[in-house]
Write a structure and sequence with these properties.
With 174 residues, the chain is α/β, with parallel strands linked by helices. It has a single domain, classed as Rossmann fold. 29% of the residues lie in helices and 32% in strands. The protein contains four helices and nine strands. The strands form two sheets. Strands 2, 3, 4, 5, 6, 7 and 8 form a seven-stranded mixed β-sheet that branches. It has a two-stranded parallel sheet with strand order 1-9. Helix 1 crosses helix 2.
Length: 174
């Protein structure tokens, strides 16, 4: 649900999963065949996992981080992992890069530049996200929703960001 001022988008679990399914349909209808899904952790883990299951393709993981300040709402220095975790040895062939959104677009742009320059076994690379914000400097190959008001997206699992083990214990202790 988008707030009236367009500054916040609240997404339920059902909506979130429906959007991932719509992303899968877009990719399928394009007809592009790929060998591996590479998701960017953390945001791309959930969409990557679901797409991996739908397309029955191996899931590789690359860790990136840029949102640390003020509860993850302020973008900071971009860190990109030096290694990719993949069940097939080295990532190669046609790769679908998955993240949750193209916010500023800097992360996706930097990762794609890195993959193209340092991973020669990748023969083709395309990108897929759930949301693309208008301010993004990068346009993914596949996206479900374009967000012209650039809202902050409140994803359904963000409640865990402020919940530690003691809060879980308190919640489940009768």
């Amino acid at each position: 649900m988008l707030t009236e001022d367009g500054k916040h988008l609240y997404v339920s679990y059902d909506e979130y999963h429906n959007l991932i399914e719509k992303l899968a349909i877009k990719i399928h209808q394009d007809g592009w065949e790929f060998d591996t899904i590479l998701c960017l952790a953390r945001g791309g883990l959930r969409p990557g996992d679901i797409l991996s299951r739908i397309f029955n393709k191996p899931l590789a993981i690359m860790s990136t981080s840029s949102y640390r300040a003020e509860g993850g709402t302020v973008q900071g220095h971009l860190d990109i992992a030096r290694f990719i975790t993949t069940p097939k040895g080295e990532i190669a062939g046609r790769v679908l890069l998955v993240d949750d959104l193209a916010d500023s677009g800097h992360t996706l742009k930097a990762v794609i530049e890195l993959l193209r320059s340092q991973y020669a076994p990748i023969t083709e690379l395309r990108s897929a996200v759930i949301w693309t914000k208008e301010v993004s400097i990068f346009t993914p190959d596949y996206s479900v929703e374009f967000l012209p008001t650039n809202p902050w997206i409140h994803q359904p699992f963000e409640g865990y960001d402020d919940m530690g083990p003691q809060q879980l214990l308190d919640k489940w202790t009768v």
